[in-house]
Amino acid sequence: MTRVGDGSPAAALAWLSRTVEPGNRDLWAYVGSLGAVEVAEQLHAGDGPRRLQNAAGERWSEDRSLHDLEAAARCGARLLTPDDDEWPRDITDLMGAAASAGAQQCVPPIALWVRGPMSLARGLARAVAIVGARAATGYGEYVAGDLALGLAERQVTVVSGGANGIDGAAHRSALGGGGGTVAVLGCGIDRFYPRSNDLLLAQIAQHGALVSEWPPGAAAMRNRFLVRNRLIAAFGLGTVVVEAALRSGARSTAGRARDLGRVVMTVPGPVTSATSAGCLQMLRDEGAVPVGSTAHVLEAIALPGIDLAPDERGADRPGDELDQGLGALLDAVPARRPAPAEAIARTSALAAPEVLRGLTVLELMGYVQQLDGRWRRAPG
User: Fold this and answer.
1) Whether 111 contacts 14, CB under 8 Å
2) Is 146 helix (H, G, I), strand (E, B) or coil?
3) Which one, of 236, 249, 244, 49, lies nearest residue 127 by Cα?
4) Lowest-confidence range among 6-10, 313-317, 357-361?
5) Exposed end of the chain (fewer CB within 10 Å): N or C?
6) Alpha-carbon distance 338 to 377, whole Å?
7) Nearest to 124 by CA among 92, 157, 93
8) Which of 104 and 202 is assigned the larger pLDDT?
């Protein structure tokens, strides 16, 4: 059998990550059955299941596994395998269960290229994904940033895709709040894409984690971003869509989150905005949880009785605590020019004795005052 790299599981997984595109159900199942070394050696020898040979295409004969591992080390990255302590086992187990149950686009990763100091298992133990439009509005970027900042302040890791717009706003605010953040890439771990986010991605690599299923040097391609969306959905206990068109990558991520049984949330936006049309449809047709604050998000992902959002109500108004009768009487008392009790009785449609008793109570409570036998509202 043809040996891959140095014959180690890491070299085999590095080779497989370059040879067969990630998200391949057949590869995941075959590696789970035989182990990465045996599968890599079979495919490198031009052997193995025909479907996997076809998936490998013309890549099967080349072996860049050790080169890729060295390239990763040069940029401060590492190849994470299922045998490593920081492997997010609970997450990949969830993905495996969903894939076994028929969720075709929830296949677990066989390995992960990681760049940054964050321990992935610890960082993702309590995490939320925030995604949305690249061509975001100021409203969308403000809301995404506000949510991410609040989560970071509560030691919740923010997961996103490192793109412009909503993703970038979420990552920046998480970093600004001193929290952890993870960017899941659709290209090699040594490539910053988009280039306009070079500085942001470098900061994430320094303080959080960049994650990719593709080996160093792998180019960014549209389909790869769709494949990586399942990881963004899996990495968060819930996914928040801040802005999304009717067809968008953010909605794809929400779909994968739904397949995994994760909480799907969305931020209501203006009905006149195309970037909120997808969010409206998620609310109408897909049962997404509407959220508008960090407290809402924490409540949606929390265990029962934990992180409950406070009851929200409008500001208290004078007289809110009065019963219906006293409230109606107070409404009938003039605010400026004092009026006799008889006039107040006519206005309130209450009997005169009841009005006198009520005015006395209201006076004791500080709501009204008597001036020369006439009544008016108390100033302030």
Assistant:
1) yes
2) helix
3) 236
4) 313-317
5) C
6) 8
7) 157
8) 202
The answer to whether the beta carbons of residues 288 and 265 sit under 8 Å apart is yes
- Please tell me whether residue 67 adopts helix, strand or coil conformation: helix
State the CB neighbour count (10 A cutoff) for residue 222: 8
- What kind and span of H or E run contains 227? helix 222-235
Q: Write out 308-329 in H/E/C secondary structure.
A: CCCCCCCCCCCCCCCCHHHHHH
Residue 120 · residue 208 · CB < 8 Å = no
Q: How far apart are CA 15 and CA 22, in angstroms?
A: 12
pLDDT digits (tens, 9 = 90+) for 254-287: 999 999 999 999 999 999 999 999 999 999 999 9
CA dihedral 294, 299, 305, 311 (to 10 degrees): 70
SS3 content of the chain, % helix, strand, coil (to 5): 50, 10, 40
Question: Token pair for residue 100?
Answer: 């076994």
Displacement of CA 175 from its chain's centroid (Å) = 15
The structure tokens listed for 351 are: 């009997």
Coil, strand, or helix at residue 349? coil
- The rounded distance, in Å, linking the Cα atoms of 275 and 5 is 47
Cβ of 308: how many Cβ atoms within 10 Å?
11
Q: How far apart are CA 24 and CA 13, in angstroms?
A: 14
- pLDDT for the residue 311: 57
- Are 241 and 266 in contact by the 8 Å Cβ rule? The answer is yes
Cα distance between residue 9 and residue 20, in whole Å:
16
Give me Rg for the CA atoms of the chain. Answer: 30
Q: Cβ of 173: how many Cβ atoms within 10 Å?
A: 25
